[in-house]
Amino acid sequence: MSLPQTVTSGPELHSPKEPAKKLQTPPVRGPWRASGEGAPGTRCEDTWSGLGTFRRAFSRSSQRASGQAPKEDLGLFQRSSRFLSRSLRRAREDGSKADQSQATAVPGVTHNPQVPSRVMDGGGRRSSAGVGREELEPEAGKSVADLITERQLLAAFEQLRQLEGRLVAEKASHSFQEDPTGFARRAMDVCLHYDGLAAEIGAIVRETLGPGGVDAAALGELARTVRAEEEAHPASPADGDFLLTPRRWRQHWEDAVNTQGPSTQKGEPPQAPPHVRSVSYTHLDVYKRQDLQKVWREVLPAYSAAGFPAGEAYLRAFHGAVAQRLQELAQDARGCEQLYVLLDWAVNVYGSPDFLGVPDLTLSTEPLPPLLAPALWARLESDYTSFLETKVTSCFDSILQLEQSRWADTEAPDMLQGLYHTPLSIDVHMLVAEHVKVAGAISAELEATTLSICARALGLFLPRFAKAFLESKAVSEPHLGASINACEELRTSLLARFPGTFEELEKPLVAATCTFQKRLLQGLQGDVQPLFRNLCTKAWLTQDVLQPLMDKVVAFARHLEHMAPLPAQETLQELHRYVVREYLAQVLRPRERFRGEERVRSAQKMGVDAQAIGDTFQGLGSEATWLDQAIPCVADILGETYKDDILRHLETLIGSYPDIRRDHVLAILALRRLGRRRNQRLLQHAQGLMRAAAKAGGSGAAGGHVLFEEIEVPASMDLLIACI
C-alpha cells in the first residue's frame, strides 16, 4: 500500500556518500505535517529560547492536524511532543549541574556549526551532536519514509533505532544544549517516523481481511519489526526519557486487530425460514465466518512463520465484535422466535465444531468471556418465557379450534390400531415436545421452565376442552371414546416421558376422563332405565324381562372394545355396578309386594337374574367380582324358610358390603315379614355388625366399593316396621 507523501520532508538521514538525501516525514494518518517555520537559522543563545521555538512550531503543526488526522495517530503525535519536551527539560537541568568541558568532550564527535541540518522544514542548522559523517546510511539509498512506504518496516526501524541511539548519546553528553532546537526537531522526526511505522502496522492489519489477498510478506515483515522493537526497547528508561521508551507496537497491533473485527456481509443475505429470517440470517450472519477462516488458513501461518503468535488476538477480536453485535441485537429482539434465535445462536451455533464450516477449524470459547452478560442472558430468558406462555396458550387455542372443526363435520372418529382416535393427543405431544426440546438445547433451567409452562397451559386447557366438547353436537359413543383415549394417552405418555413435572396433570386428566365416562354411561342409562321398572312385578315372575336390558348392555360394551384398556375396564365395572345397584333398588322399592309362594318364587327369580348378570359381565371382561354376592344375599334372606338362618345371611351381606345402612336392612326385613320382635332383634344385631365394620374399615365402603350407599329407600320404613 502506498502512503501519501507529506508536503514537506523530514530531516535528512544521510550517509557521507549521499549528503543531500532527505529523511521524509512518514505518512502518519492524514495530511498534517511537521513544520519548522520560523526556526532560528543561527545558534540559540539560550536553551529555553530554543525549546520555546520548538513548542511554537509543534503547536502550529498540531493545529493544522487537529481537524484532519485520525484520533489514534494524532494522539501519538501529541504524546511524542509532551514526552519529548519533558525529556529535554530534564536533560537541560541535569546538564546545568555537569561540567561544561565534559558535556562537549565526546570522543569521535566533530562540531561544525556551518554544516546545515535537515529538519522538518528543510532549514535550520546542524546539531552539535556531530551526526555528520557518522550518520546512518540508508539502505539501497532509500530514506526511512521510502522504506516505510515500500513496507520495508524492519529496515526502516533499524535506521531509526541507530539514529535514536546517536541522539541518546548526544543527550547524555549534553552537547544538544548548543543547538536544542535542532536536537528537538531531529528527535521529533524520529518520533514521527516511529509513529509512521505504527500507523503502517495498523494499515497492514486493516488490509488483511480486505477484498484483496493476504500479503504474507508484509505480515512477516510486520511481525519481525514488532519483535525487533520489543528487543530494542525492553523497558522504559529509569529517568523517564522519551527516547528508548517502548513503543508498544504489539499492543498497537492488537488494537488494530480488535478495531478491525469481522467484516460486514456484502450483498443479499441467504434466505432463512420466515419465522427466524429477521434475526438469524440478516443480523447475526453480518459477521462472516469466511473472515475467521481466512485468518486461520492464510493470516496465522504468515505470522507463525515469523515466530509471532497471533491466533488468540484474532480470536478475541472476533469474539468481542460478535459479542458487541449480539448485545445490540438483544436490545431490539421481540417475540418468542427472535429471542430464541439469539439464545440458540449464542449457545449452539457459535463455537460449535462446524461453525467455521471446516472440520479441522474449531472455534474454542473456553478462555473467552460469555457472548452475553449474565444479567442480559437472564433478561432474555425471562422475556422468552413470558412470550412462550402467551404462545403456548395460543397454540392450545388453535388445537381446540381444530377439534371443534372436526366435531362440526359430525363424522365418526378415525380408528388407529383398533381404537377410536382423535389427533388431540398427537397435537399436544408435538406442542410440548417441540418447545421442551428447543429449550433443552439452551439450558436445563430453561427446559424445566418450559415444562412448567406447558403443564400449566395443558391443565387449563383440559376443562375448556371437555366443556366445549360436551356442549357440541358431536357427543356420541365413538367421539366420547376417542376423547377418553386421548386423555389416557396424555396421562401415560407425558408422565412417563417427563416424570416429576406433569404429575400435577394427573388430577385434571383423570377428571376429564371421568367426565367423558360419566357422559358415556348416561346415554346407556337413559335407554335401559325404563326396563328396570319391569322387574319385581308379577309379570317378571313368569317372563324374562331382564334379557332386553342385557342386550343393550352387550351392545354398549362393543364401544368399549375400541377404548384404551384401563378406561374401558373402569367404564365396564361402572356399568356392572350400575346394573346391580338399579336391580337392588327395584327389589327394595317393589311396585308390587309378594307373600308366601310368590315371595319364594321372587327369591328364586332373583337368583337366576343374578347369575345372568354375573355371566354377562364376566363374558364382557368385568373384573368387579365383588358385585356378584349382592343380589344372591338379598335373595337368600327373602327366600330363607328357616328363619334362624336369616341372621347368617345378614352377616354375610353386611360383611361383604359395609356401606349398607340401617334403612336398607329395614327394607329387606320388611319384604321378609318376620314379625316385629324378630325384626327388632335382627335389626339390633345388624346395627352391631355395621358399627363394627365401620370401626374396622374407617368408612362405610370397603376398598372404595360403593353399592348400597347410593340406593335410596322410603323414609317411612321405620313406621311400617313398627306397625307389623
TrEMBL record:
It holds the Pfam family Sec6. Residues 257-266 have a biased composition (Polar residues). InterPro entries: EXOC3/Sec6, EXOC3/Sec6_C. Gene3D superfamilies: Exocyst complex component Sec6, C-terminal domain. Keywords: Phosphoprotein. Residues 54-66, 75-86 have a biased composition (Low complexity). Coiled coil: none annotated. GO terms for molecular function: SNARE binding. Residues 1-138, 255-275 are annotated as: Disordered. The keyword Phosphoprotein applies. GO terms for biological process: exocyst localization; exocytosis. GO terms for cellular component: exocyst. It comes from the Eukaryota. Belongs to the SEC6 family. This is Exocyst complex component 3-like protein 4. It comes from Neovison vison.
